[in-house]
Amino acid sequence: MTTTFEPATMPAVKRQQLAHLTAQMDALKQGGTYFKLRVLDDEQGPVCSYDGRRVINLSSNNYLGLCEHPKLKEAAIAATQKYGAGSGAVRTIAGTMRIHMELEEKIAAFKNVEACVVFQSGFTANAGTVSSILGKEDFILSDELNHASIIDGARLSRAKIKVFRHKDVAHAEELLREIENEPGRKLIITDGVFSMDGDIGPVDKLADLAEKYGAIMMVDDAHASGVLGRNGRGSVDHFGAHGRVDVQVGTLSKAIGSLGGYVCGSRDLIDYLYHRARPFLFSTSHPPSVAASCIAAFDILENEPERIERLWSNTAYFKQQLADAGFDVGGVTTPKSETPITPIIIGDGRRTMDYSKALFEAGVMATGIAFPTVPEGRARVRTIMTSEHTREQIDQALEIFVSVAKKTGILS
Asked: Is 171 among the residues known to form the active site?
C-alpha cells in the first residue's frame, strides 16, 4: 500500500513574527536581485537541463568533469554495497570507518603533508578550523575578499580581526607591525583562488610575512584544488611553498566532484582538530559512498593530467574571446581573473540579473551575482570553464553572450 502525503495548507491568518523577512524579500524583488533556485534535471555536465531547459552550463564548479566520471560512480556504488548507505555516527563515537581513514591518508600524501582531516563541507572545514585554533587573545589578518566561511570562522574564534586590502602584502605587513608586540598568536589567512574574481592569492609573499613575524599561515584552496599546481595539488604547490603553510584547507565538492572539505597540516594540528573542531565533533561522518568517490577522484588527478591541460586551454580561449568581444572580464574596477573563474562585470544588480535570465532563455546557464555576495556596483555574471566543454560548445556560448548583450544594451 502506498501512502500519499498531502501538502500542508496555509493557515487562515498569517503570523507576523517573521514579517520582517517578507519585507526584506520584497526589497530584493524591487531591486531586481531576487532569484529562485534553478533545478538540475540530470547530471552536472557541460551541457545539461535546468528547469526542463537544455543549456550550456557555465556555472558549475565541476572543473574536471568528475561529477559524472564513471570511476567515481562505480566506486560509490561498490562502497555502498560493501559498507552500507551511511556511517551511523559522528567520527569520535562510532562513525570513523576504515574508508574515511584511507581518504585522509590519500589526501595527505597528495598534498605532501603529515596528516589530513575530512569535514562535511569546505565551509565547515574553514569555520571549524579558524574558530578552534585561535581565541579572544589572538589576532587574525584576513584578506578583504576572503570567503564567507573564513569570515565566519574568524568571528566565532573571538580573535581580534585585522582586514588587509585585497592581495596587498605591504598593507598586511603594516598591520602585522602594529600588533607585533601584542600578546597572542597571529594568523595570516588568504584564499588560494578568490571565488568571485578568479584571481590568485599571493601565497608565497604572505608566507614570507608569516615567517618574518612568527605568524601562522593558512590558505583556503577550495577553488585551487584540482586547478593549480602539479596534478591539481593547489596554490601551495603552484608557488612551491611546501612546508611554509601551516594550515591548508580544501574542498571535495568542486574539482574533486563529490562532497566535503578537508584540512591538511602537521599531525599535531589534525589531532587537535579531532578533539576541538566543533563541526567534526558534532556532525555525522560522510557516507562511505562519498569517501570512496573522493578516493577515486584523487587517483584520476594523478593518472589523467590531460584533464587539467584541457581546462586551462579552454580557459585561455574563452577569456580571450570574451575580452575581444568587448566584455569587462576584470582588471579595471575589479581584480583580473587568472583562473577558470571569469566574471563578466556589469555593475548594476538589476541589469546583471536581467542579463543572466536572458542568457538562460537563450541557452546558457551563467549565474548573476550581486550584493551582498559582491560589493555594490560590482555585480557580475560569473562564468566557470571546465575541461569537458568542447570548442563547439564554447563558441556557441560566446555567440549567445554577444547577441544577448547587444539586445540588452550590455554591449553596443
From this structure: no
